[in-house]
């Protein structure tokens, strides 16, 4: 499993890329995703997230996390794009570091925990989970809670 991590210069001292790669790997393992899979994770600021949210989702505001799957798929179906390098590119996750800090403060927990929650959320979207209906929301958030618990208990 591969994870390409891109962190804006101003956040590089605050975020540990090695830990983020381990987190993504644990999530993909928990979801039994192919070891030949790859995710791109971008840690950036509100302005970039706002611009992407407006451009691609027609939402004129910043947000905490955006997910851009390579393919639209249903849960547990293997229809991801296989590139010439042989990797299965699941998609891209973009996280706003300032929103991560703000939400961590609101929930009274460490920024690292909030980052973990947002990465789980983003990866689950790449894998076809969604929260657009009450039933799908229950499934996605239930899965996210189980993965979070597993990762926290592992000490990562």
Report on this model:
With 156 residues, the chain is of the alpha/beta class. The chain has one domain: Metalloproteases ("zincins"), catalytic domain (Collagenase (Catalytic Domain), 3-Layer(aba) Sandwich), CATH 3.40.390.30. The chain is built from five helices and five strands; from the N terminus they run βαβαβββααα. Strands 1, 2, 3, 4 and 5 form a five-stranded mixed beta sheet that branches. Strand 1, helix 1 and strand 2 form a beta-alpha-beta unit. Helix 1 packs across helix 4, helix 3 packs across helix 4 and helix 4 crosses helix 5.
Instruction: Quote the CATH topology.
Output: Collagenase (Catalytic Domain)
SSE pattern: EHEHEEEHHH
What best-fitting shape do the alpha-carbon axes yield? globular
Strand content: 15-25%
Number of strands: 5
Secondary-structure topology with pairs:
Blueprint: E1 2-7, H1 17-30, E2 37-44, H2 46-57, E3 65-69, E4 81-82, E5 88-96, H3 97-107, H4 111-126, H5 134-153
Parallel strand pairs: 1-2, 2-5
Antiparallel strand pairs: 3-5, 4-5
Helix pairs in contact: 1-4, 3-4, 4-5
What's the short story on this structure?
This protein is 47% helix and 19% strand. The protein has 5 helices and 5 strands. The chain has helices at 17-30, 46-57, 97-107, 111-126, 134-153, and strands at 2-7, 37-44, 65-69, 81-82, 88-96.
